[in-house]
Design goal:
The chain is an alpha+beta fold. The chain has one helix and three strands, in the order E-E-H-E. A three-stranded antiparallel sheet has the order 2-1-3, with helices on one face. The protein is globular and about 30 Å long.
Amino acid sequence: MTSPSGAPIPEPPATAPGICSAKGCTSAAEFGLLWNNPKLHTPDRRKVWLACAEHRESLGAFLGARGFLKDVVPASALETETAPEG
């Protein structure tokens, strides 16, 4: 993507608050996908990926196929200090 002047527009960082975690997506997050990798994390730890409506299913499928997905909640239910983690 380029700006009107032709300069490239940088993608937002993966940890941009309130933005979908899907690569290249800049849509507002509507869901929080709570997950953990049991090989790396304690059972009670939850990492968060944010998802817009368009990417909720694909991100959930990615995590679910690996047995990582634990819960899906509305983004509004997440604490404000929670940032998406990649």
